[in-house]
Structures are given as structure tokens and as C-alpha cells.
Design goal:
The protein is α+β, with helices and mostly antiparallel strands. The protein contains 4 helices and 6 strands.
Length: 169
């Protein structure tokens, strides 16, 4: 049985390298995308400091994301592509690091306590099919080292899953 172990957070690259090792061990041998998303969100929420939300949104159609497994307060169920940080990440086909969500045009405040947000794309051979979204109550919580680390975790999640039709579903 998997057991997460405490990781020193003072060195972000080393922290994310160890977290990636733990995530690979957690997902090893399991191909179910929902189970893996649930465990990925739980591990990130428990191990990454200063988060108030961690979870997934998946493309339900070419113009809408739908909520997937997450940890934190209840969240917005559907987000239009191009709206909010998650929808904008899909529209622009890139990760989004927002130091102050109150300064982001069109930010969707699912949790009024959130002050910064990091959204990374989930990609397969067909392109982006969803996002991994992290929120923090601290302004400026995320930086490029966090983005690189979370992008690696998102790639580990995608690699572990056995998607039935190749588009993240």
C-alpha cells in the first residue's frame, strides 16, 4: 500500500522531483483516469503547501470544461472555454500562472479565499483535453518552479491513464 512521506519544501526542484516519484508510485499499475485524478489531486493537496483547492477540469465538449476529481471546497461545475483562468488556458493552449486572481480579467471566483492560481494543461497525442488547477489563498504563491513541477505531475497523470478513445475521456 502507498504511503506519502513528508518532503522538505525548502528546495522546490528537489521537492517536485520527490513528489513526482511519489505520484508515480501511487499511480503505478492503475489505468483508470478518474481514480488516478482523485489520487493525484489528493496527493498534491496534501503535499504542496498553502493550497485551498487542487483538482481537475476536463473538456466535455470543444467549448466547455466540466469538473473532475478535486480536493477543497465545492467548485464551479462547468467553465466555458475562454472564461476564467482554466478556460483561458484551454483557449490559449498554454499553462497559466496568475499571481493575483483579482487582477485577472474574467476570473471566476469559485472560492472567494483564492488569491493566486496555477493551471496546467493535460495533453495526449490529440492535444489538450483538460487542466490541473491549483488555487492558493496567498497572493503570488506560485512561480515558474511550481509551474514546471506541476506540469511534470500532470504528465505523470496522463501517462498512467488508459484513456479509451485517446482524447482524455
Amino acid at each position: 500500500m502507498f504511503s506519502a512521506t513528508a518532503i522538505d519544501t525548502s528546495n522546490k526542484p528537489a521537492f517536485y522531483k520527490e513528489l513526482a516519484t511519489q505520484l508515480k508510485a501511487l499511480l503505478e499499475g492503475e489505468g483508470d483516469s478518474v481514480a488516478n485524478a482523485a489520487n493525484t489531486a489528493a496527493l498534491i493537496y496534501q503535499m504542496v503547501p498553502d493550497l485551498n483547492w487542487a483538482g481537475f477540469y476536463f473538456l466535455a465538449s470543444e467549448d466547455e470544461l466540466v469538473l473532475g476529481p478535486f480536493q477543497g471546497k465545492p467548485a464551479c461545475v462547468r467553465i466555458a472555454v475562454g472564461k476564467g483562468v482554466c478556460g483561458k488556458a484551454i483557449e490559449l493552449d498554454m499553462s497559466m500562472l496568475v499571481k493575483d486572481v483579482n487582477e485577472f480579467p474574467g476570473h471566476i471566483a469559485c472560492d472567494a479565499d483564492s488569491r493566486s492560481e496555477l493551471v496546467v494543461l493535460l495533453r495526449d497525442a490529440e492535444g489538450a483535453f483538460g487542466v490541473l488547477d491549483l488555487d492558493s489563498p496567498l497572493p503570488g504563491r506560485f512561480d515558474k518552479e511550481d509551474q514546471a513541477g506541476i506540469e511534470k505531475l500532470a504528465a505523470i497523470y496522463v501517462a498512467a491513464c488508459e484513456f479509451e478513445d485517446g482524447d482524455g475521456d
